[in-house]
Specification:
Blueprint lengths: L3 E7 L10 H5 L7 E8 L8 H10 L8 E6 L8 E7 L10 E8 L11 H18 L6 E8 L4 H9 L9 H19 L5 H8 L10 E5 L7 E8 L6 E8 L5 H13 L2 E10 L6 E2 L2 E2 L10 H17 L5 E4 L10 E9 L13
Parallel strand pairs: 2-3, 6-7, 10-13
Antiparallel strand pairs: 1-4, 2-4, 5-8, 6-8, 9-14, 10-14, 11-12
Helix pairs in contact: 3-5, 5-6, 7-8
Length: 356
Amino acid sequence: MTGVRLLTVPTTGPDDTAALDMLAENGSSIDDVLAVVGKTEGNGCVNDFSRTLAAAAWGPRLTDDAITVFSGGTEGVLAPHVNLLVADDSRDPRHDRGLVAAVGTTPVIPLEELGRAGQCEAVRDTVAKLLVDLGIGSDDVHLVLVKCPLLTSTDIAGLRSRGVEPVSDDTYESMARSRAASSLGVAAALGEIDDDTAQAALLGLRQAWSNRASASAGAELDTCHVLVLGESPAASNPLRALHTEMTDAYDLAALQDAAAVVARAGGRIRQLFVKAESDPTGTIRGLRHTMLTDSDINATRHARAAVGALAAAVKGDGAVYVSGGAEHQGRPGGGSVTVVYEVEPPTDTPNPGALR
């Protein structure tokens, strides 16, 4: 079991690691950092080098066991920032539970398995192991964050030279396939779907998802980086979490309902982790949208900007983690939502858990 603290720090660029200077002020060191989860100001697509730059800057400064998750794209009001998940097992007797976290990486994902069963199973098994490490059940989990690989044009050519057909011959679509496989692995690990349903979903079944999964893809890694956040009575800290989902990109009510739960608990929102998706039907509440047919701006960029504005309004600032592409991360057209918040002791409010 690893209790955690959360530091959210604005950045001046993808290579800005100044957030580490705040650790000493909070009684911690680099050795205590479990994960760095950041939003960088690239395009969030296949050639987003801001993610690669951030990973290259942060990786050498962290321990071998720490992970990085960088999501590109800070369109609209979204602010570039990093979230440091810092191990802290100190106990505050005024709290009878607290936020816990565990991180891990899958084995290297073979290119021929990217977006397919092998990747799904690798994520499933890694999440299951992390739950055991934390000593919590699936009902205690509020977020599983995954950073996964994608296929470059070089990867696709290499597969075909070996007589292997890739999951997609489109690099942008390979991001979606990778996110989907990772998210279905999370859903399987948490018992939200069974393995047969996961396999059917890989082949096109849309009605399978986890509202606790958040996956993003990038060219900066060849394994899946996995972060599990949950609550445990074995921890004793002021951080809590809840999860819900947006049913579509207009669903401000879902975020407001979550904020109301936090308010009733006497807490304040520390961070929102939200997935955003351009509805695959091409409509939202009966009205046609053009996000999927815009040849100038990728659909994930549209979705991040739209949903990011709602999330920022609820939190009160733009340093929110909004990631585009929500395949099997919440219902189609919507997206998973996790709220991390802080309560003042004492708290007698029951764990709100899942809202939907």
